[in-house]
Amino acid sequence: MGRARRARKIAQAAAYGGGVGVAGLGALGALGYGILRVEAMMARRIVGQPFEGAPSDSGTYGSGSGSPVQFLVLGDSTGVGMGADHAHQTIGATIAHGIAAFSGRPVELTNVAVIGAESPGLDEQLERALAAVPEPHVAVIMIGANDVTHRIDTSVAVRHLEMAVRGLREAGAEVVVGTCPDLGAIEPVPQPLRLLARRWSRDLAAAQTVAVVEAGGRAVSIGDLLSEAFSAEPHVMFSKDRFHPSPAGYARVAAALLPTVSAALDLFGERSTPTEPNLRRGESVGPLAVAATKAVTQPGTEVAPAEVGGQSRGAHGRWAVLLHRIRPTVPAPALPASTTPAPADDGPDDGRPTDDAAYAIVDPEPAQPAQPVDTEPAPSEAADGPTEDAVLR
C-alpha cells in the first residue's frame, strides 16, 4: 500500500474510530518495536544522558501600536525548546519576534507545550491554552516524535491532533502544525532501527498532514530539515544531548514555520492576492493525500486547503496546495531579542518579506496557473524516499 493510501486510511480511522496498528504497521510494527527497544538502549549510550528543563519563553515580544497578537504554542519538547540556552532562542520566541517585526504589533506568546508529550496529551494542553487565551490569533503545534517512540497507535495520535486543530479553529485561531520529524536519520541511531523509524515517522507525518488540512489547519513538513546541516556541523545544530536541536537548530525549524505562520495571519496580503503555485519549484494543487506524501520527503513544505473551480473536493478527496516557501538547505539564525518591529507594508511589492534574518525565501519566479492532478502518486512517489544518514532531533 502506498503512503498516500496509508495516510488517507489512517486519517479515516482517526475520524471514524478504530485503529490500524501501532505506527500503522501491524505485525511488522510489533516486530520492529522489539528491535527498536534493543537498538534504543544502544543509542542512548551513544547519544548520552538527557538533561532536564527548558527555558520558559511565555511573555511579550516586540513592541508597536495595537493590541498584542495572541500566539499559542502546543506540543512536545521541541515546542518547549529543550536544548535552547535562553528563552529567546526557542521556536516560539523566534516566530514571535518575526510576527512582531512583520506586523508592527507586540506578540503575546503563551507556551503550554510539555516535555515528553504525546498527541493524546494535546487534549489537556488545549484546555489550558484556551483557559489562558480564549481568543487566540494563531497557534503552532509541534508533535509526533514521542508517538513513534512510545508506540502510540497512529490513528489514535492523529485523532487527538485533529481534535486539537479543530478546537483551536473553533476558537478563531489560525493553526500551523510542524509534523513528525524523520527519526530515521538521527546519526547515532544504528540500523536497522533507523530504517524502521524513518518509515514510521514519515507515515505518521503524512497522516498528520491529511488530518490537519481536513480540520482547517496548515501543515509544514519538518522531516529531515537538519540533515545536511547536522552532517556538516553536528556540534552547532544539535544540543549537548545530541538529540534535541541547539539554538541554531531551533532557528532553522522556526525558519520553516514562520513563512506559513505569516501567511496564515495574512501579514502580506495573501488573502486578497493568493500566492499561485509555481510549477518550476514543484508547487502544485492536487489531492490532499498525494500532497501529504510528497511533503514528508521535502522538508519545509507547506500543505494547506485549496479549491479548484470553486470546489474544495474532487474525485479523490479534498484539494490541497503544496508550497515551498523556503530553501530548506539554508540555515536561518534566530532573530535577536532586540528586534525592532517594522510596519507590515515595508515589504516588496509582491507581498513577500525580504528579512533574510528571519528566514530564507526561494528566489521568486513567474507564477504559473496550477494544474491539479486528481490521481494517486506513482510508485516512486509513494516510496519511503531516500535514506540519508542524518536528521533533525
UniProtKB/TrEMBL annotation:
Keywords: Membrane, Transmembrane, Transmembrane helix. The keyword Transmembrane helix applies. Residues 335-345 have a biased composition (Low complexity). The chain crosses the membrane at residues 13-36. InterPro entries: Ester_Hydrolysis_Enzymes (IPR051532), SGNH_hydro (IPR013830), SGNH_hydro_sf (IPR036514). This is Lipase. Residues 73-252 form the SGNH hydrolase-type esterase domain. Residues 331-393 are annotated as: Disordered. It comes from Terrabacter tumescens.
